Amino acid sequence: MKKLLSFITALLFLTTGSICLAQNFQKDMDTTTYGRNKAVGKYAELRGIKMYYEVYGKGEPLLIIHGNGGSINNFIYQIPYFAKKYQVILADSRAQGKTVDGADSLSYEMISDDLNALLDHLKIKNANVLGWSDGGIEGLLLAMYHPDKVKKLAVTGANLRPDTTAVDPFVQKMVLAVNVKGADSLKRMKNPTPAMKNQLKLMHLLSYEPNIKTADLKKITCPTLVIGGDHDVITTRHTLEIFEGIKNAYLWILPNSGHSTPIVYKDQFNQVVGNFFAKPYRKIEKSGRFM
Questions:
Q1: Of the given ranges (10-19, 69-78, 280-289), which has the lowest mean pLDDT?
Q2: Which PANTHER family does the record cross-reference, listed alphabetically (predicted)?
Q3: Residues 179, 206: contact at Cβ < 8 Å?
Q4: pLDDT value at 3 more than 70
Q5: CB-hemisphere CA count at 13 Å for 101?
Q6: pLDDT in tens, 164-213
Q7: CB 83 within 8 A of CB 57
Q8: 247 by DSSP, 3-state: which?
Q9: Residues 13, 103, 62: CA angle, nearest 5 degrees
């Protein structure tokens, strides 16, 4: 079953059209200490789970959130860049990576509440937040239901719902098929391991959630940078819907890009997101739209 989720993750990355980039990224993840750094890695017991996290750098707090089936080391290109100016906080989300989770259920709301609890654990009043894919969903929820914790928000490849109005039809059909196959495999197992159960929870999450109402985006009041690839697995029109639903939002669509914007365009991505966090974007209204 783990192979099924790994297949989905790999395919989402390969929608960028670069096998060479994917191979280099995998090699970098295999050799980095990020996500398994014994010198800085710690566990926080919160909300019934044992959450693994790492902190790098000093300065203004920056929480970075990975996607479905991912872990801290997905941000090997962002950690060293942002740690020069920020206190970079990363965690393996519930049921993923090194985080221990024995619960039967899983939702994006649970994960965003976990991250809020982690900030409390670290005595951090608020932070800039960067989320990729499912991490973007959790960033949106964190800003909606814990607005005091989010100073600025940048999300890439996030979605509000799992249907084909938001997700590319080919990808949505594939994910549903893999979810059904995984559920059937689990039923046939006499003694499925906790890891296997977690894999199924993650596939279910990817297939049937989130279910966020567009109107609820009005709850987000912090400056928000909404990012997507022009050939992302999340449709451009849906990314535009998220942008238009947030009052204080800015939009960045990367040309010739799929879902993996922090990897394929890592240098440009880091610079643009870094600039967004570093200084206020101007408000563009009325006649200001001409400039």
A1: 10-19
A2: AB HYDROLASE-1 DOMAIN-CONTAINING PROTEIN (PTHR43433:SF5), HYDROLASE, ALPHA/BETA FOLD FAMILY PROTEIN (PTHR43433)
A3: yes
A4: no
A5: 26
A6: 999 999 999 999 998 888 877 877 887 878 888 888 899 999 999 999 99
A7: yes
A8: coil
A9: 50
Q: Compute the distance between CA of residue 288 and CA of residue 253 in angstroms, rounded to an integer.
A: 21
Pairing mode, strands 249-254 and 86-91 = unpaired
pLDDT value of position 172: 95
pLDDT at 7: 45
Lay out the sheet containing 42-46: strands in order across. Answer: 42-46, 49-56, 86-91, 60-65, 127-132, 150-156, 224-229, 249-254
Report how far residue 140's alpha carbon sits from residue 216's, in angstroms, rounded to the nearest whole number.
10
Model confidence at 8: pLDDT above 60? no
Contact between 93 and 118 (Cβ < 8 Å): no
Q: Are the CB atoms for 167 and 233 separated by under 8 Å?
A: yes
Q: Which amino acid is at 151?
A: K
**Cα-trace Rg, the chain:** 18
- Rounded CA separation 126/148 (Å): 6
User: 64 forms bridges with which residues in the sheet?
Assistant: 90, 130
Helix, strand, coil percent content, the chain, rounded in steps of 5:
45, 20, 35
pLDDT in tens, 10-63: 555 444 446 677 778 888 788 899 999 999 999 999 999 999 999 999 999 999
3-class DSSP assignment, residue 183: helix
Q: Domains, the chain, ranges and CATH?
A: 2-279 (3.40.50.1820)
Length of the chain measured in residues: 291
* Average pLDDT of the segment spanning 262-287: 94
- Which structure tokens are listed for 198? 């977690």
Q: The tokens 């750098």 sit on which residue?
A: 57
Phi, psi (5° rounding) for residue 280? -65, 135
Let me know: does 220 contact 243? Beta carbons within 8 Å. no
Question: Do the Cβ atoms of 135 and 115 come closer than 8 Å?
Answer: no
pTM, to two decimals: 0.93
Q: How far apart are CA 91 and CA 53, in angstroms?
A: 4
